[in-house]
Design goal:
By secondary structure, the chain is mostly beta strands. It folds into 3 domains: 163 residues, Jelly Rolls, CATH 2.60.120; 189 residues, Sandwich (Jelly Rolls), CATH 2.60.120; 63 residues, Immunoglobulin-like (Sandwich), CATH 2.60.40.10. It contains 2 helices and 26 strands. The strands form 6 sheets. A 6-stranded antiparallel sheet has the order 10-9-13-19-15-16, with no helix packed on it. β17 and β18 form a beta hairpin. The N and C termini lie far apart (122 Å).
C-alpha cells in the first residue's frame, strides 16, 4: 500500500497527462485527436473541479463527481460512433473512477450523453455514442467517493476510437431482405434508471457491433409468448428481433443513416413488442423506442414511438402462455420525409430490460422506404373521370374534407378544380394535415369544317 501511494505521488508530481486539462477552457485549448490512446494518465494532483451530483445518474449513493478529475475535448470532422474505454486503473486504495461524455462543459444541464463507472472485475469502463461532425465533446475522468471510502484519485489508461458512419445513398437493406445487417449499425449496452417520471430507462451503450442473439434475423415461426408471427406479415421474408428473453439490464440499439430522395421520402416502420411487466416505475421498466433523427441529431417531429411495460397499455394484450408478459402485435408508423430531401436522416430503434435487471423486453422490427403518396397521384383529371386517393398505412385515424370521410381511401370525381384536405392522426397523438389539389381539365373539341 505504501509503495502504491508513493508511486501515485510521484506520478502526480511528474503529471504525465500530455493533453487535456482540469478545466473546460484548458481542455478546449489543448484538444486531443482521434483515435487517441494514452497510458499512465492520472487525476492525482488536479483538484476536485467538478463536484456534486452527476447529471447522468438519476439516483445514486455516494458522489460520482467526488474525487480529483481530468478533462479531454475533441471535435470529430465526420459523424459516427465514438468508443471510449478506461482501464488499467491503479490507486492507493480501491478505486472506482468514472467517465462522462458531454456535448458541453460537464455539469451543463442536458449536456450529458453517456456515463460509465469502472468495474474492477472487468478492469474497464466503456461508453459508445453517436456523435455529430463539427460538435465539440468532453470526456471527464473523475472518481467515485462514498463517504470517506474509495480513492480520491487514480492512474488509468484511456483509449478513444472513432468509427465514421457514411450515409447510405438510399435505404439500404432497410427491410433486412438480404438476410443480414448490411447498411445497419448495432450497439449493445445497459438499461439504467432514468430520472423519476421519465417514460423509459436510459440506454447506456457500451459496445459497438452486431451481436447475434441480441440483433437477430428472423425468418419464420411465432413468438413463444405472444403467438404472433416473428416475420412481419405485411413485409418481406425477414424481420429482426432486437433484444432477447435474457435478463441482466441488457439493452440494444440498431441504426441506419440514409440520404432522403424523392423516391424514398416516405419511411414506414413496423414493430411488435414483448415485455415482462414487473410493475416498476416507468423509468425502470422494460422498454422499446423508435424514432428518426435529422442530420443534426434532432428527433424528426411525429417519428417517435416510445413505450415501457405497464398494465392496460392501449393495443397491448396479456400473454396466455407466459406469466406476467404483455405484448403488442405488429403495428405501423409512417413518417413523411418530404421536408428532408437531400439530408442524411437516421432511423433508430432501441430495446431494453428493466433497469433493476430481472425482467426482459424485446421487439420485432421491419421497415420500408417508398415515394411519398403525395407525389404518386396525378393532379389533373378530365371531366367525368374519378381518382382514388389512398393515405399511407400507419395512422390511428383519417379524415377527408370535403366529404368528412374517415376511411383510408376515398374515390372522388370532382366537376371542377378541388383541393382535398387530409387530416392524419398518429398513434403518438401527432396531427398532420396535407393538401391534395385535383385539377379538372375540360377537353378541347376540334371541329373540321368542309370548305367545298
Amino acid at each position: 500500500m505504501r509503495v502504491l501511494l508513493l508511486y501515485l505521488l510521484i506520478i502526480s508530481a511528474l503529471k504525465l497527462n500530455a493533453q487535456g486539462s482540469n478545466t473546460c477552457t484548458g481542455a478546449v485549448a489543448n484538444p486531443i485527436s482521434l483515435p487517441f490512446f494514452a497510458n499512465n494518465q492520472t487525476t492525482c494532483g488536479d483538484g476536485n473541479d467538478y463536484t456534486g451530483g452527476n447529471p447522468c445518474i438519476a439516483t445514486m449513493t455516494g458522489n460520482y463527481y467526488g474525487g480529483q478529475d481530468w478533462l479531454y475535448s475533441f471535435t470529430p470532422t465526420q459523424s459516427g460512433y465514438v468508443t471510449i474505454i478506461l482501464n488499467d486503473v491503479v490507486s492507493s486504495i480501491a478505486a472506482y473512477p468514472t467517465i462522462t461524455l458531454s456535448n458541453a462543459c460537464p455539469g451543463t444541464f442536458g449536456a450529458c450523453m453517456g456515463f460509465a463507472l469502472y468495474n474492477p472485475s472487468t478492469n474497464n469502463a466503456s461508453i459508445v455514442e453517436y456523435l455529430q461532425a463539427g460538435q465539440t465533446y468532453y470526456v471527464l475522468v473523475d472518481n467515485y467517493v462514498w463517504g470517506t471510502y474509495f480513492a480520491n484519485c487514480s492512474q488509468f489508461d484511456l483509449n478513444i476510437q472513432f468509427t465514421p458512419v457514411i450515409p447510405q445513398p438510399s435505404c439500404t437493406n432497410i427491410g433486412f431482405s438480404n438476410n443480414n445487417f448490411t447498411g445497419w449499425f448495432g450497439t449493445t449496452g445497459l438499461a439504467t434508471r432514468a430520472y423519476i417520471g421519465a417514460p423509459i430507462p436510459n440506454y447506456d451503450a457500451t459496445a459497438l457491433g452486431i451481436v447475434n442473439g441480441r440483433h437477430t434475423i428472423m425468418s419464420g415461426g411465432n413468438d413463444p409468448c405472444a403467438g404472433f408471427p416473428r416475420v412481419d406479415p405485411l413485409g418481406g421474408p425477414f424481420s429482426i428481433r432486437l433484444g432477447d428473453a435474457n435478463v441482466g439490464s441488457q439493452a440494444e440499439q440498431l441504426t441506419q443513416t440514409f440520404i432522403v430522395t424523392p423516391s424514398n421520402n416516405s419511411f414506414t416502420y413496423r414493430y411488435a413488442v414483448v415485455f415482462e411487466d414487473p410493475g416498476h416505475p416507468s423509468n425502470e421498466q422494460p422498454f422499446f423506442r423508435a424514432l428518426l433523427r435529422d442530420q443534426n441529431g434532432n428527433i424528426i417531429p411525429c417519428s417517435e414511438f416510445v413505450v415501457s411495460a405497464a398494465n392496460n397499455l392501449p393495443g397491448f394484450f396479456a400473454s396466455a402462455t407466459c406469466s406476467g408478459v404483455v405484448y403488442k402485435p405488429w403495428s405501423t408508423v409512417n413518417v413523411d420525409l418530404d421536408n428532408y430531401i437531400g439530408q442524411a436522416v437516421t432511423a433508430e430503434f432501441t430495446t431494453g430490460d428493466c433497469a433493476q435487471g430481472a425482467h426482459y423486453g424485446y421487439a420485432y422490427i421491419d421497415a420500408q422506404c417508398s415515394q411519398s403518396f403525395l407525389d404518386a397521384y396525378p393532379d389533373t383529371i378530365c371531366v367525368g373521370e374519378s381518382v382514388t386517393l389512398t393515405a399511407p398505412n400507419g395512422y390511428q385515424s383519417y379524415s377527408w374534407l370535403p366529404g368528412n370521410q374517415t376511411t383510408q381511401s376515398i374515390t372522388v370525381s370532382p366537376s371542377s378544380n378541388t383541393t382535398y384536405q387530409l387530416n392524419l392522426v398518429s398513434f403518438n397523438g401527432c396531427v398532420r394535415t396535407v393538401q391534395l389539389p385535383i385539377i379538372v381539365s375540360t377537353p378541347i373539341i376540334l371541329s373540321l369544317i368542309n370548305h367545298n
